[in-house]
């Protein structure tokens, strides 16, 4: 996907809204399903560009003082989604660097509207690779179940249109390394790469 017109729908009035590019906020926002590499590529991008990383899953756990798995089990998914909506809104308002969202953040219409105008990159992944990457990780409560592959396919069917709605760029991640993806995102979004001391030694 190349640059797209960041058009979305006002969550209150349902009127189409064409957002102007925002001039403050994160340098780049990463969206995509679990296992697409948002957290890993986000960390690599932050290192590459010498900018801070923020991951809304970490923010939610810090604020709640517990794990995402505990929030899902103890309070339920709707409670988690409310915390997530607030965490994304705060990070969009406050964070100037690389921002990785949780895979389900785009389920919120308010969040999708808030993302309009921000430089959003969608990391895509096939169901086969996505399931391999997340495995049966219990810290991803949505993936715990009898048939993770069917769960993951259903998740992709629901969400791929939403990732595409909010993103200006799309990167297929199945056969790319985290480092190559970080460079590709930095190039597309025109982020300046800052050589780390380790890279400098090879010059
Ligand atoms: N491009 C990639 N190639 C190989 N492994 C990857 C890639 N991206 C992510 N992974 C691995 O997949 C797992 C999930 O990655 P993570 O960054 O946590 O994804 P997300 O935040 O999108 O759920 C981690 O073990 C990570 O090392
Ligand atoms: O897809 C989802 O609904 C979720 C994805 C997770 O983040 P990652 O996409 O970083 O794994 C985390 O927010 C939570 O377990 C719910
Ligand atoms: Mg993550």
From TrEMBL:
UniProt keywords, alphabetically: Amino-acid biosynthesis, Aromatic amino acid biosynthesis, ATP-binding, Cytoplasm, Kinase, Magnesium, Metal-binding, Nucleotide-binding, Transferase
Major subcellular location class: cytoplasm
Cofactor binding annotation: Binds 1 Mg(2+) ion per subunit.
GO molecular function: ATP binding; magnesium ion binding; shikimate kinase activity
Annotated compartments: Cytoplasm
Enzyme Commission identifier(s): 2.7.1.71
Any Gene Ontology biological process: chorismate biosynthetic process
Stretch list, region Disordered: 1-21
Gene Ontology CC annotations of this record: cytosol
Binding site for substrate: 57, 81, 103, 159
Residues reported in the UniProt entry to bind ATP: 35-40, 140
Top EC class of this enzyme: transferase
Cofactor(s) needed for function: Mg(2+)
Catalytic activity: shikimate + ATP = 3-phosphoshikimate + ADP + H(+)
Pathway, per record: Metabolic intermediate biosynthesis; chorismate biosynthesis; chorismate from D-erythrose 4-phosphate and phosphoenolpyruvate: step 5/7
Annotated InterPro entries: P-loop_NTPase, Shikimate/glucono_kinase, Shikimate_kinase/TSH1, Shikimate_kinase_CS
Function: Catalyzes the specific phosphorylation of the 3-hydroxyl group of shikimic acid using ATP as a cosubstrate.
Family statement: Belongs to the shikimate kinase family.
Subunit annotation: Monomer.
Entries under PANTHER family matching the protein: SHIKIMATE KINASE, SHIKIMATE KINASE 1, CHLOROPLASTIC
UniProt protein name: Shikimate kinase
Gene coding for it: aroK
């Amino acid at each position: 996907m190349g640059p797209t017109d960041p058009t979305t729908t006002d969550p209150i009035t349902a009127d189409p809204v064409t957002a102007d590019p925002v001039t403050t906020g994160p340098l780049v926002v990463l969206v995509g399903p679990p296992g697409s590499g948002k957290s890993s590529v986000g960390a690599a991008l932050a290192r590459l560009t010498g900018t801070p990383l923020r991951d809304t899953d970490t923010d939610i756990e810090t604020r709640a003082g517990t794990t995402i798995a505990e929030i899902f089990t103890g309070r339920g998914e709707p409670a988690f989604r409310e915390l997530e909506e607030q965490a994304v809104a705060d990070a969009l308002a406050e964070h100037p660097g690389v921002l990785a969202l949780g895979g389900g953040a785009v389920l919120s219409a308010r969040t999708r509207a808030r993302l309009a105008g921000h430089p959003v990159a969608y990391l895509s992944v096939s169901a086969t690779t996505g399931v391999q990457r997340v495995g049966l990780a219990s810290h991803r409560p949505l993936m715990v179940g009898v048939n993770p592959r069917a769960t993951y396919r259903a998740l992709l069917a629901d969400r791929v249109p939403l990732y595409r709605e909010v993103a200006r760029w799309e990167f297929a991640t199945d056969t790319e390394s985290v480092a190559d993806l970080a460079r590709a995102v930095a190039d597309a979004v025109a982020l300046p790469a800052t050589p780390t001391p380790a890279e400098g030694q090879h010059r």
